Amino acid sequence: MRIAIAGGGLGGLTLARVLHRHGIDAVVYEREASRSARQQGGSLDLHPESGQQALADAGLAGRFRSAARPEGEEHRIVDPTGRTLVHHEPQPGSFSGRPEIDRGVLRDLLLDSLPDDTVVRDRRLVAATPRPEEGWDLTFQGGHRTTCDILVGADGARSVVRSLLTDVRLSYVATLVELHIEDVDRRHPDLAELVGPGNLWCVGVNQILAAQRLGDGSLRVGVSLRAENRPIDTYRSKRALLDIFGGWDPRLTALIEAGDSAPRPRLIEAMPIGTRWATRPGVTLIGDAAHLMPPVGEGANQAMLDGAELASRLAANPTDPESAIRAYEEGMFTRIHPIAEMSTRVQAMMLSPTAADDIVRFFTPQPAEPSTAG
């Protein structure tokens, strides 16, 4: 099997790593020209049943523990006055929950576990056409061409491979505006103390101001707003963001003022819940290409689990990849449906007029119902 993986994100790299452990070669075609081509985003909490399970299947659980930050699981939720609503503190040094790891660190961990020639860089897939007998002709930006027997779309929200299987349309669900603050302990010790070692959410009406500690001593700041008909360029200035949070405690809005560069807005989109497609020989999808969801903590975890499960299916049935792909897809559809429903509910809850009360209930354990047994 000549396996081509379009996209060198966490899902595609996990797929390649688990295949490699089973003695199956694959080539990952990555659009970025180098590891450092762009900032890789924030920190991820890896769940035991998904992201951590995928790393165990990849033989990387030990390396993950060496690189992860259990203290990053600490989570503070406050209202616009700075009043604490929820404060979750993990057990010191415990990996039993959802320890944090920077996305870039996790990606490097996966990259370093692969043979040097696995990832081919500066290859943005622009077209895939079926070959007369079987397999695919792949065309990349710039005119590069190659062929494969099996094509896996790990190419994210704007997947090119997805169009081979479904014409599903994405829907706009929120706006996210990001800022970055370097060397926060030295330059902004007050903000370092405010955020702590993990995550801070400041919850208002239809809007959230959040900050997240990264392992390199920086903060990633995010402003989440409900989907609306404003031009996205509206949010490219700090002044516009500060106006949105007028009346909030200045200790909180200082997170916006301290940003080291102009705000970076982007639209958050999602696929319809329950999206499925008929299995097509020699092609399938993983991660955001398969089930783009609101970003509430499941996307990377499910992408990695997709990669691990697809690799295991292909390794278990190498002479019948079509059956392996069909079994993977059926399992993935069943697994993702309730997670996509939950993610949609949480996204709506977080950006609602009653978000503060709803989030407190969500994070507060409910007392058990009294027993009626006689």
Distance between the termini: 63 Å
How helix-rich are the residues, as a percent range?
A: 25-40%
Low-pLDDT windows of residues: none
Number of domains: 2
Query: What is the CATH architecture descriptor of the largest domain?
Result: 3-Layer(bba) Sandwich
Shape descriptor: globular
What's the helix count? 12
Radius of gyration: 22 Å
Reading off the top of the CATH hierarchy, the class of the largest domain is best stated as Alpha Beta
CATH topology of the largest domain: FAD/NAD(P)-binding domain
Mean pLDDT: 93
The computed structural class is: alpha/beta
CATH superfamily of the largest domain: FAD/NAD(P)-binding domain
Element order: H for helix, E for strand: EHEEHHEEEHEEEEEEHHEEEHHEEHHHH
Write up what this structure looks like.
- It contains twelve helices and 17 strands.
- The chain has two domains: 3-69 and 101-168 and 273-350, FAD/NAD(P)-binding domain, CATH 3.50.50.60; 171-270, 2-Layer Sandwich (D-Amino Acid Oxidase, Chain A, domain 2).
- It has 374 residues and is α/β, with parallel strands linked by helices.
- The chain has helices at 10-21, 51-57, 61-67, 103-112, 184-187, 189-195, 238-244, 250-257, 288-291, 299-316, 321-350, 355-363, and strands at 3-6, 26-29, 43-45, 75-78, 84-88, 100-102, 119-120, 125-130, 136-140, 145-148, 150-153, 171-181, 199-203, 207-213, 219-226, 264-270, 283-285.
- The longest helix has 30 residues, at 321-350.
- The strands form four sheets. The chain has a seven-stranded mixed beta sheet with strand order 5-4-13-14-15-12-16, sandwiched between helices.
- The protein is 33% helix and 23% strand.
- Helix 1 (10-21) links the parallel strand 1 (3-6) and strand 2.
